[in-house]
Amino acid sequence: MCTIVGDTLAGYSDGVGGRVHDLLGTRCDPYVNQMLSGKAFDFHCHSNLTRAILPFGLVESDVHDVLNVFQVTGLNKEGQYYMEPCPANPGDYFEFFAEIDLLCALSTCPGGDLSAWGWGKDTSSDDMLDCCRPLGVEVFKLTDATLLETWQPPECAGYSGIHGLKMPTFEA
Fold it and tell me: What is the pTM of this model?
């Protein structure tokens, strides 16, 4: 779908096992929030992404796995999931080349840089807003077609798509 071509935090580690650009966790959503806090809240990343894709004829079930850019997560020595504050500084970036047409929806974490984050903790939403940081997005248009002279589009996998199931045989 896309190839990462630039990342100023590519080698980042928190020294405990956490890495940046989380794929381990998922986005926060109103369902888990209701379960953990007993409160309704519609401005988690899941809801933000759902609202972002609606104008394109998509629905909530079309919001799937996310890439939590600049978010640090890991598993501690006890195997427990954890999150750490974002290490990004002004000028840090994550850049990718779209190998196919993509619809990218963006939600900045309502928990800000995660320095005041915590489920069920006595943390007000104002505390979390205080640690929100601006995020810039740029979309580049290719102006020199020679840059793609050696580029090949990704090939489709040769998988048959039947997941080990055999189609029934019918006798005439």
Answer: 0.74
